[in-house]
């Protein structure tokens, strides 16, 4: 069956294989049905490929319609009806089975992927909860301890100014006040590390690239786009900063003789980041070979953990904000591309129950072949009955025949057309005679249903009139 697959070459090969095997078997004219086996195998493989069932249904309808038109134009082809029905059945049933098996495998794979995704989401939620808790604790520590330390410094200052205090005690009070102030400042720094980072705008990117250049890396920054100031969300700015920082660190560590080009393009809907590096025509030895160490030392407070995560962690960060991340060889060097939407992506629609879809596929795998076969058998029967009514030779007219009778005398009693049926076993015809076949009755419930008359003429005279029973493959009567 023809279907719409993402790999046209394989689709065409499968469709041609099914058609070739079916045509070879139909043309062989054998009743063994051996050709149904390879045809069923090809149809099963075709059903196992991804695609839309609608195209297959349309192809099947087109084949059946073409067969109906062919029989209407050439009634003698009706004798191929049983072979055509077997051909369609040998293609439809295995195709449905292959499609059901493919959907079952996709369901299992989707289940595992969904489980892995839920596990990642749970880990991310747990990590976010831990970060929020750390931030809350740090804020509480800052509020409580900072207040107490400030009071301690204030008391030490008052003690330092107290009259009559010995000089050594006054020096101790001054030292206590200085240490309390330093503790308040250190506590503020620690809490600042735990708080969420502010957005990193163009100035921060320029400073980042400038520090990389100062460390010996040949890096250039180009800012593009028409986004207004403040239009880029802070989380996008932070992600851009991390992408650029990780990319420059990788260039410094793994390609010290390359030139890095950073392009950041802001639009109203998204921000695109592209960092590429290409070899320099003649890299000069110098501090570039130590850029990785310099960047690692200079950026450790801000991004050491990000660098340890590497490209895999960077891709997770980009995808966490709904973006797309690609990294790989490019132009003789290496490239990193990230696209970050300014608005979070819309929630995915609720997926249809997979079990219900699989159940419908299983039902379709059984019902579609049954209905198809029933429709074909019914259609062939109805068509055969209609065609038989136009080729009935009445038994009483057959009984009045006599050998040597001119065909002109018999013609008024003959039906409009001959039947396409033939005896199962070929019976020798008289020499140089032209034979015509007619049915004895068009009633499918009559005992004589399927029985044939054969009239043979030579030189316009009746030379043989025989009746055949196709069920017994025998000749019932000799010429009258």
Brief descriptors of the model:
5-stranded mixed sheet; 4-stranded antiparallel sheet; Heat Shock Protein 90; 11 helices; disordered N terminus; alpha+beta; single chain; 480 residues; 4 domains
Structure description:
There is one protein chain. The protein folds into four domains: 1-137 and 350-389, no CATH class; 138-194; 202-341, 2-Layer Sandwich (Heat Shock Protein 90), CATH 3.30.565; 391-477, 2-Layer Sandwich (Beta-lactamase Inhibitory Protein, Chain:B, domain 1), CATH 3.30.1450.10. It is built from eleven helices and nine strands. The protein has helices at 8-28, 36-47, 53-73, 81-160, 167-194, 202-214, 234-254, 291-320, 354-389, 395-399, 407-410; strands at 218-225, 258-266, 270-279, 324-330, 333-341, 434-439, 452-458, 461-469, 474-477. Strands 1-2-3-5-4 form a five-stranded mixed beta sheet, with helices on one face. It has a four-stranded antiparallel beta sheet with strand order 6-7-8-9, with no helix packed on it. Strand 7 (452-458) and strand 8 (461-469) form a beta hairpin. The longest helix is centred in the N-terminal third of the chain and has 80 residues, at 81-160.
């Amino acid at each position: 069956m023809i279907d719409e697959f993402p790999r046209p070459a394989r689709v065409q090969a499968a469709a041609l294989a099914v058609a070739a095997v079916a045509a070879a078997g139909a043309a062989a004219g054998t009743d063994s049905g051996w050709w149904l086996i390879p045809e069923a195998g090809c149809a099963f493989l075709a059903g196992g490929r991804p695609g839309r069932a609608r195209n297959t249904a349309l192809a099947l309808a087109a084949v059946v319609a073409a067969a109906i038109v062919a029989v209407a134009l050439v009634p003698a082809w009706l004798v191929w009806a049983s072979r055509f029905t077997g051909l369609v059945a040998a293609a439809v049933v295995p195709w449905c089975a292959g499609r059901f098996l493919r959907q079952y495998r996709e369901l299992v794979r989707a289940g595992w992927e969904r489980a892995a995704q839920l596990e990642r989401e749970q880990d991310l939620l747990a990590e976010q909860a831990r970060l929020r808790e750390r931030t809350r604790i740090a804020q509480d520590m800052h509020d409580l301890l900072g207040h107490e330390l400030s009071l301690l410094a204030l008391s030490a200052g008052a003690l330092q100014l107290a009259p009559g205090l010995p000089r050594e005690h006054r020096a101790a009070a001054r030292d206590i006040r200085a240490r309390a102030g330093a503790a308040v400042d250190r506590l503020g720094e620690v809490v600042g590390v735990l708080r969420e980072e502010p957005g990193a705008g163009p100035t921060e990117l320029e400073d980042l690239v400038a520090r990389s250049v100062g460390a010996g890396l040949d890096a250039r920054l180009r800012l593009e786009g028409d986004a207004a100031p403040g239009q880029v969300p802070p989380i996008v700015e932070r992600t851009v900063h991390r992408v650029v920082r990780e990319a420059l660190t990788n260039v410094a560590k793994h390609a010290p003789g390359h030139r890095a080009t950073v392009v950041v393009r802001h639009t109203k809907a998204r921000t695109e980041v592209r960092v590429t590096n290409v070899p320099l025509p003649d890299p000069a030895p110098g501090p570039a070979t130590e850029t990785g160490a310099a960047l690692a030392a200079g950026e450790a407070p801000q991004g050491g953990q990000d660098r340890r995560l590497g490209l895999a962690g960077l891709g997770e960060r980009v995808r966490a904000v709904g973006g797309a991340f690609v990294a790989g060889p490019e132009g003789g060097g290496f490239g990193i591309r990230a696209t970050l939407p300014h608005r979070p992506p819309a929630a995915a629609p609720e997926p249809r129950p997979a079990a219900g879809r699989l159940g419908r596929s299983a039902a379709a795998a059984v019902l579609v072949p049954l209905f198809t076969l029933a429709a074909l058998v019914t259609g062939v029967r109805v068509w055969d009955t209609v065609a038989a009514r136009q080729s009935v030779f009445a038994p009483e007219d057959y009984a009045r025949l006599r050998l040597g009778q001119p065909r002109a005398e018999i013609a008024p009693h003959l039906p409009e057309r001959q039947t396409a049926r033939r005896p199962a076993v070929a019976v020798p015809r008289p020499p140089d005679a032209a034979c015509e076949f007619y049915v004895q009755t068009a009633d499918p419930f009559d005992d004589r249903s399927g029985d044939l008359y054969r009239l043979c003429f030579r030189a316009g005279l009746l030379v043989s009139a025989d009746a055949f029973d196709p069920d017994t493959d025998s000749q019932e009567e000799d010429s009258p």
